[in-house]
Amino acid sequence: MKALNLYDIEDLRFEDTDKPELKSPDDVIIKVKATGICGSDTSRYKKLGPYKEGMTFGHEFSGIVEQIGSEVTSLNVGDTVTGCPAVVCHQCHYCEKGEYSRCENLYVIGSYEPGCFAEFVKLPASNVLKLPDNVDLDTAAMVEPSAVVAHGFYRTHMKPGATVAVMGCGSIGLLAIQWAKIFGAAKIIAIDIDSHKLEIATQLGADYTINSIEEALDQAISAIPEKIDVAVESAGSPFTIGQVLTLPTKGGEVLLLGIPYSDIEIKRQHFEKILRNELNVIGSWNGLSAPFPGEEWTATLHYMSTGEINVDPIISDRLELEKGPETFYNLVNKKKHYDKVIFHP
Question: Residue 265: which domain range?
């Protein structure tokens, strides 16, 4: 089969590789129909390189069940599905408590096992979820990032009627705007340095937008009458991780969703906001809960089926998989603008 395999930093190749085979009675092989580029994929491509040289890359996808193992009863060949790419051990202390995002042996496909930038991918049956009839395959390729965002919101103590600020309006931030509405936000503030992303944020439900290059953030926030109850950091930037601490009201919450790929140094006046304002700072990792893979996944599929999670405005490009190497190069080196890229193998 054809796949995108990562050999080194900025060395991604479209080439033939082995098709996955059923080896366990609970294995499921899925024909990939749509698969998306995650921000963590671009960081590994640009900065970190592969976990294993030549590994098939990617972890966000949807597709059609091609083969099932002998003990699989929850799925049938031909089912349209999405897959949770996080593989957990189901044996460690955290798994025994149902805290699967904290599994001591967690890994995601595309790291130590082949991922979904390929014509076919394999997962355990417990990681595979059938799609509602009205959720299309491109939408379902974004169930995983939505589940990651949902996991963070479930960790907050957010109440209906809250004001939520979202800092960083990439795919995660734009999904966070929609989850904030689902959780009952009365007002949502979107903050970014890209006016195009802020336009999408407005389309998806943001009540206020702030371009923090064009106007001073503290002044723009002070002009908004509502006090911010929950501030979501979804950019993973060393700069915004400090800034986001200045946003919530006293006793408010900061939800950290963005993954930084460089060291963080927080200014004293930013750090003191945690202390003086008695902020609750919440780290969030992956998107798993019990029963595995969790309510984040079933809720995402529900809200995609109702239209309350809408990913169409987020997806900018639908491309053939063979365009992967040039797309990654153009994306990380800013040779071309993309929002969310979906490959069709």
Answer: 147-283
